[in-house]
Amino acid sequence: MLFRQLFDQTSSTFTYLIASKKGREALIIDPVLEKVEQYIKLLKELDLKLVKVIDTHIHADHISGIAELRDKTNCVTVMGDKTPADVVAMRVADEEIIKIDGINLKALYTPGHTSESFSFLMKDRVFTGDTLLIRGTGRTDFQNGDPRDSYNSIFNKLLKLPEDTLVYPAHDYTERRYTTYEEILNINPYMRLAYEYYKTKNNTIKDKFIKVFTEKEKSLAHFDEYDINLCVDINKMCGVVDDISYETLDQLWSKSSGACG
């Protein structure tokens, strides 16, 4: 298997390239529009054929590159079946398997950050989008997000995976690249509190988690309403941009760094 983790500095977004060595088929998770030419160059250098491209959810901090990749490579666009996006070719249900030559990913419905968020499991690693980050969790105060859904997705689905599962999120705002369940439960401050409830089933602790989580979100950077609506609307069309320049996009997102974590 070939595995590459790529990073967009402007939006602090991780993009993942996964491919089989034998059949040379590849898929990409959470591509950024401005980096599409970089992805295509890498595919050519590695002699790979892109067959599928996945978005974990409708992003609010960058424009998706899945439509551009589809148009340039004839790959299949993939999202979860709860997505409001209109032009996705393949919609996957919870626990449905996505296949390319020699590689399987299991789709996991993990709402919370948004109501249509999915994660994708591949053997020893899970790609969690914005549902679960390295030392935090994705904010839940827009796009029908809900901290209770986030809690349920993390503790009743993601943390039910094997303890040695590696977590690869869609963002990190420092230089961390991935995390482990041990780090999540011992260092992630929100998960420590939530894990205490998970062990004790004390509703007072759960209520405290929701309160702390909600208060945390009030301190985060916020998008201008126009910016977030523009981004979400474009990504509902899989990132189709007709009259907006990359320079304009950079200006929109540069003032919103860290807004999803």
What would you say this structure looks like, in words?
The protein has 261 residues and is of the alpha/beta class. It has a domain at 2-179: 4-Layer Sandwich (Metallo-beta-lactamase, Chain A). It has eight helices and twelve strands. The protein has helices at 36-45, 66-73, 147-156, 181-186, 189-200, 203-218, 225-236, 246-254, and strands at 2-8, 13-19, 25-29, 49-54, 76-80, 90-92, 97-100, 103-109, 118-122, 125-129, 166-169, 179-180. The strands form two sheets. A six-stranded mixed beta sheet has the order 1-2-3-4-5-6.
At a glance:
By secondary structure, the chain is an alpha/beta fold.
Please name the defining characteristics of this protein.
single chain, 261 residues, alpha/beta, Metallo-beta-lactamase, Chain A, six-stranded mixed sheet, 32% helix, globular, disordered C terminus
* CATH homologous superfamily heading of the domain at 2-179: Ribonuclease Z/Hydroxyacylglutathione hydrolase-like
Name the assembly state: single chain
The parts where pLDDT drops under 50 for at least 5 residues are 238-249, 252-261
User: How many β-strands, per DSSP?
Assistant: 12
In angstroms, what separates the terminal alpha carbons? 30 Å
User: What's the CATH class of the domain at 2-179, please?
Assistant: Alpha Beta
Spatial order of the strands in the main sheet?
1-2-3-4-5-6
What is the CATH topology assignment of the domain at 2-179? Metallo-beta-lactamase, Chain A
Tell me the β content.
15-25%
Mean pLDDT: 82
Give the structural class. alpha/beta
Which architecture of the domain at 2-179 per CATH? Answer: 4-Layer Sandwich
Sheet having the most strands: 6 strands, mixed
